[in-house]
User: Fold this.
Amino acid sequence: MKMIGEIIMDGMVVVGDAAGLTLNTGLTVRGMDLAVASAVAAADGIGAALDKDDTSKAALAGYREKFFASYAGQDMKDLREGTRLPRARAHV
Assistant:
């Protein structure tokens, strides 16, 4: 998703506000839930990479995939596509 820049690189991932994971639609401002969702996805992605003893960008790509598959990533996708306004969820 192009609205988020590079959040993975060799040996490093960027999460939360540092990764640009905040939303201000004019009607709602969100960030804490997105930060938590990105931290959970990062932990899963980092864990998988460490299990393979590989912290390359390619090995850490699971973080980005897991984030965009999460409710937070889906909300960001919906906002970009204009299909609906994101809403807070109790899944965190």
